[in-house]
Specification:
single chain; alpha+beta; Fructose-1,6-Bisphosphatase, Chain A, domain 1; eight-stranded mixed sheet; five-stranded mixed sheet
Length: 266
């Protein structure tokens, strides 16, 4: 299928922004009455899900099906639905479910569009902060409509790096990456949402983000944001069944790329 920028990206970018706002509002409503939610475990007690995750994903799936039924769709909660257009929406309805269910604001709705193994749209809504990060290929990145452009003078020694960890990664691996980052003169935070920390890289709040094992729905929207803000990211394997499996994720501002690649071994 031939891909025309004006007719293919633009309406989908408008839809992604609209869906992020609508889905963010729905998620925020659930957040504000989270004591009524039934929390379920996935792989372990730290990996949780609720009806909020499922209903937010259902909303986004419905909106895509209404406008672009030929597009594929991959969501964290309900998996992959192939399409015929060559485009795949990749969505995490609530990234940071643990902060969400525990009453912390560090969660977001993450929406990406993938073409030819590259994210060409990335929109992340952080409703508790009233922030929407949006980017599309060749159009730059914005935060609440304000353009984002990374500062090349910031590096791991004069800024902060985000790191992520989960039970897919051995504790000693996490300890080693923290040790290596501190030994190189850096410092770090972890807020419980990898997608939101990637958005913070695009906004210049963090100089980079590294997680040894992450899924496509957690990182692709953030990757698009970082690239369009002038940063760099480590390619995520998206061909074939790799799209549904985890991989290392690293995104950086220009001045942190070499140092963080050494820390990550990438």
């Amino acid at each position: 299928m031939a891909f025309d920028t004006a007719t293919d990206i633009d309406p989908r970018f408008m839809l992604a922004c609209a869906m992020a706002e609508e889905a963010g509002a729905l998620a925020l409503d659930y957040f504000n009455r989270r004591e009524t939610l039934v929390i379920e475990q996935k792989r372990d007690p730290q990996d949780v899900v609720s009806v909020a995750d499922r209903e937010v994903e259902n909303l986004i799936r419905k909106r895509v099906a209404e406008k672009f039924p030929e597009d594929g769709f991959l969501g964290e909660e309900y998996g992959l639905q192939p399409g015929t257009s060559g485009l795949i929406w990749v969505v995490d309805p609530i990234d940071g479910t643990s902060p969400f269910v525990n009453g912390m604001p560090n969660w977001c709705v993450s929406i990406a569009l993938l073409k030819d193994n590259e994210p060409i749209i990335g929109v992340i809504a952080a409703p508790c902060h009233q922030e929407v990060y949006a980017a599309a290929a060749g159009r730059g990145a914005t935060l609440n409509g304000k353009p984002l452009l990374l500062d090349g003078s910031r590096n791991i020694r004069n800024a902060v790096t985000g790191i992520g960890a989960n039970n897919y990664v051995a504790p000693q691996v996490v300890a080693k990456m923290v040790e290596d980052l501190l030994s190189a003169g850096g410092n770090f935070i972890r807020n419980g949402s990898g997608a939101l920390m990637l958005a913070y890289v695009a906004a210049g709040r963090l100089v980079g983000y590294y997680e040894p094992y992450m899924h496509a729905w957690d990182c692709l929207a953030g990757y698009c944001l970082v690239k369009e803000a002038g940063g760099w990211y480590h390619q995520f394997p998206t061909s074939g069944d790799r799209l549904t499996k985890g991989a290392p994720v690293l995104a950086t501002a220009p001045g942190a790329k070499d140092d963080l690649r050494r820390v990550a071994g990438l």
